[in-house]
Design brief:
The complex is a heterodimer. By secondary structure, chain A is an alpha/beta fold. Chain A contains nine helices and 13 strands. The two termini of chain B are 19 Å apart. The chains are: A alpha/beta, B mainly alpha.
């Protein structure tokens, strides 16, 4: 399905101060329809507070949050909040009755979408944590919101559950839903998200686009020392920074900055007579970003 | 708003802890019949209800206290348990969300007292004779007392209509009383607030009821003075129905307004 560029969420100069302590500072973010954005940062960085403000359960001290409230917002809190004596369908029917915009059919579809049996009469209190998490996800998506806020969505999910979640989120994104995920599972964020915002000390420290060439470096290894010399010369002629990463006991190799096509580089190097041993695009390491932002906080939770 | 009210009410009365309601009313009903038996007076089925709801001791320490424990954490529990994450964004607004919380509390109160009355009627129906009118004991010098003076019921009153009024008034007053810790829990978000404050209040209210200074400060006798239950006040302070109703409405308005002010800017 063709993606639109419609913005489903715009956050402008958002601040949150609680008892003179700044929780969020000058947050500016936007989310497009069909985009999945990850929020990462150390504990207490302000991720959940940001989601709460967007959802309307917390109030910003200043700033603006704009999204289409008629289109609704789906929310998955960090820990499940359900009525334990009721079964899954009854829980969803109860919550759906608040807005009254969907019927039983949509509730059945939502339960099936998250891999739960709509006819299961078991009380939710007897569910495993993973099943509760699936049900929470079902309540978040059942009203077909255009904006989905997920706080630690993989909590309690087994590997199969995580794969199902990933596929479901991709499908929702294809349908034009904008999704924000706050999580500590960096591998999952890397796999699921198009873009990541790193929150540190209440501010957006850095935003990274995981799906563009700009941010992804290119690792090249060549056969001989002579090839390496030619490669270094070729890079300096084009004002590309070549960072040495190995060579003592293996093929000489280095890292070129992103922003270029691998196929073009292969063609240019071959033309220049450089024997390439290997070339690959190196995915962005969120772990490195996370560590860098943690270092900014001196390794101390604030 | 109706959907939200339904959700809140179901959440409030759908909890396992509400299983204590029939048990508590069975206990009150049986104890009341025991007291009536010891007094060796002519009573009928209606005394089973009026005696249970009208006895200050049963009312304060079992019926009112249980209702407080069942409902006073209705807002705090939603906040602590993340339920407000699911309902607030679906609500048409924060003030409406709070209004529905208050209405649900009173709905639960009416439900509570009607279920309780049904249980009391079943017990007294099994133990006491049926008569279409109130007993002479109820219309004379009964021991029934929701405040300090004994309650005296009109002899020509229709028992069902009278009990209906009694139950609705008790539900209104119990709702108003519980609204105080509910509103307070929006400001002080500690679970002890919703349990300890009303409990301490009920105990102090009982043991200092002869203290005129405390009586003037105490809300409970003012809240629970019966509809048209003339009191033989004697040397005790007496409060009229109009005064009592005004007091209840003032408490409701004050707590609702405080809650509305807090909810507008609160983080959940």
């Amino acid at each position: 399905m063709k993606r639109t560029v419609e913005k489903v969420l715009t956050i402008t100069r958002l601040n949150k101060v609680i008892r003179r302590k700044t929780i969020l500072k000058d947050i500016n973010l936007s989310l497009q329809a069909g985009e999945i954005m990850g929020l990462i940062g150390p504990n207490g960085a302000g991720k959940s507070t940001l989601l709460k403000i967007v959802s309307g359960t917390a109030i910003a001290t200043s700033g603006r949050v704009a999204y289409n409230r008629n289109a609704g917002v789906g929310i998955l809190p960090e820990s499940p909040a359900l009525l334990p004596a009721m079964n899954a369908r009854q829980n969803l029917e109860l919550l759906a009755s608040i807005r009254g915009v969907i019927g039983k059919q949509e509730i059945f579809e939502a339960l099936e979408a998250v891999g739960l049996d709509p006819y299961n009469k078991k009380a939710v209190g007897n569910y495993s944590l993973g099943m509760k998490q699936r049900l929470m996800l079902a309540q978040a998506i059942m009203e077909k919101p255009k904006l989905l806020l997920l706080d630690e969505p993989t909590n309690g999910l087994d590997p199969l559950g995580i794969i199902d979640l990933r596929q479901l989120l991709f499908r929702l994104a294809d349908e034009g839903v904008g999704i924000i995920i706050a999580s500590h599972l960096l591998n999952e964020i890397e796999r699921m998200c198009h873009r990541v915002a790193v929150i540190s000390n209440g501010s957006i420290w850095r935003e990274v686009n995981l799906r563009t060439d700009e941010e992804q470096s290119i690792e090249i290894s060549v056969r001989t020392a002579a090839d390496w010399e030619r490669l270094a010369h070729w890079a300096s002629e084009r004002q590309l920074q070549l960072t040495v990463i190995s060579g003592a006991h293996s093929f000489p190799s280095g890292m070129l900055p992103g922003g270029q096509r691998v196929s073009e580089i292969v063609e240019l190097l071959t033309t220049a007579g450089i024997a390439i041993e290997g070339i690959r695009r190196v995915p962005i390491s969120l772990e490195a970003f996370f560590l860098e932002c943690s270092q900014l906080e001196d390794g101390v939770y604030r | 708003m109706i959907g939200l009210w339904w959700v809140d009410t179901v959440k409030l009365i759908g909890r396992r802890r509400w299983l204590a309601v029939p048990l508590a009313f069975v206990l009150v009903g049986v104890m009341n019949i025991g007291v009536l038996s010891c007094m060796q007076v002519n009573v009928n089925i209606w005394d089973g209800v009026l005696g249970s709801l009208g006895s200050w001791l049963f009312f304060r320490f079992i019926i009112l206290l249980l209702f407080v424990f069942l409902t006073a954490d209705s807002v705090l529990g939603d906040i602590m348990g993340n339920w407000s994450w699911l309902t607030l964004p679906r609500s048409p607004g924060r003030i409406k969300w709070w209004t529905v919380k208050v209405i649900s509390l009173f709905t639960a109160s009416v439900f509570y007292f009607y279920v309780g009355t049904l249980v009391l009627l079943l017990i007294s129906g099994a133990c006491l004779p049926y008569e279409p009118t109130l007993s002479q004991f109820a219309c004379g010098q009964s021991y029934y007392s929701q405040g300090l003076p004994p309650l005296v019921f009109p002899a020509d009153a229709n028992p069902i209509w009278l009990i209906t009024q009694f139950v609705l008034y008790s539900a209104l007053a119990a709702g108003a009383f519980t609204l105080i810790p509910v509103a307070l829990s929006l400001v002080i978000r500690k679970s002890y607030v919703v349990a300890i404050i009303p409990t301490a209040w009920i105990f102090l209210s009982h043991f200092w009821q002869s203290n005129r200074f405390f009586f003037r400060l105490d809300l409970i006798p003012r809240l629970f003075y019966g509809v048209h239950f003339m009191s033989t006040s004697g040397s005790h302070e007496s409060i009229t129905f109009a005064g009592s109703l005004l007091y209840i409405l003032l408490v409701i308005c004050a707590c609702y307004s405080i809650g509305a002010l807090v909810v507008r800017k609160a983080d959940f």
